[in-house]
Amino acid sequence: MIEIDHYVIQDIEYDRRICPSDWRYSASIVGMVRYFRYYNINHEVDNQYLYYNYDSVNNKSDSEYMHYVEYRYSREMHHVVLEQLLDKEEKSEDDYKQIKEKLGANTILKKIFKDINIDGGPWVIKSLIDENREEIISNTFKNAKFGYAKFSNSYKFRAERDKICRLNGYYVDTGRKTKSLSFSFDDSTRNYSDYIEFDFIPFAFTTNRESVFINSNFNIIDLLRINNKIDTDMRDENDSNFRSKLFYSYQEGSEYVDFDVEIILKDMDKEYFETIFVRKEAIDIFKSIKNLDSNKGYINMALNRSIKITDNYYINMMKEVTNNILNLLTLDELIMFLFNFNDKRRIDSKKRNNDFLISQLIRINRLIYGEKLLIKENGNMSHRNVRQSIEAVKKQLAGRSMKHKIDAYRSKLIGALVANDNDRFIEIMLQLQSYTQVPFNFLHYLIRDFEGNKNLAYDFVNQLNFFKLATEEIKKEEN
Length: 479
Fold this sequence. Notes:
The chain is α+β, with helices and mostly antiparallel strands. The protein contains 22 helices and nine strands. A four-stranded antiparallel β-sheet has the order 1-2-4-3, covered by helices on one side. Strands 5-6-7 form a three-stranded antiparallel β-sheet.
């Protein structure tokens, strides 16, 4: 919320103040404070409000705004990279190739350098950049997917307050939809909620492809501290890494999400903002994963990959698992999908299987079951018994050169799991027990409560092959 009045703080007058009433205002505060501090512009922050003057953020400050954009997005600005290339004393063939590419990297640069001769000397190009710098910055930033267009409608760049919020996902074309946007078709009931201050929202997000803003708005001091830290930490990281930093690396992540908090994401390829609500139950699961994975990092190793399903479709495991934990959803569907996916392509021995990945998903799933369903499984003893039973089965069948029997039973068990036919699963297990003469001491848990002990079934099926865990460490952790 933005309030207009006359405020005097430490003998300095201000005409506006803003409080973090929702994430848009919180992000505006963070973006503006970064901007004010860069230029040493008068402002005042307390736990509830940011005080400032309108002249510091409106159209009169466009020149300063553009130069701050150039500073914050210097690595993405073609003309900045071009200047760095031109400043090199010795240029390689690749440098000249990049210079030529940058001269026509977007519409505004093509216009400015349309008649330029690259052999005319660096000073000519640099002179044109200096003469047109603000126009280059403005046109590049407002239309770029990494910049303003990622967050807001480009046509509203540096515009005064409008009838409809300028942010992507909030903006609609009032020329096509007017009264239909309002309650009971009464235009006076429409919520406008748009300010030029929203043009500072991009500065509050990290500059990655998938940008992050943490709306920790208990007070403005903490809001600034947390977002400044993640902005620094994520500056040189790839996009998949922020989930690891926030959630799985508790030593680092606890500084961001050690409490119920709202996280706003903006993906370059999506036309809307995504909201993640991090609850205490999810935080507790991430803590448990961190403790379980502290020695060797097997879980982190397994999740830091994408599974190719088709030529055009991949499953980002870190993203998929994180979303499930945040929503307190079990990994049952994902585990069964991978079982089925593995089983269908097992005939092609050249293709990499996902047994190690599934083994780590089962470990995580047990933690989710414990937190969400409050199931205190029968403990690690039954999972040790699964492993002992598996080793005995393998020894029996491998000794008779009957590896194909293992694959056959595995396929049957996977089919029963995918069909959610618990009785059929138990029946097949009893058949295997009879055939191998190996006692399955854990089976009575599945007979008594299959749903509550489903991870035992997953564990058994996943190990019912000749795949060995990478080391003995995981077994030790279960003891």
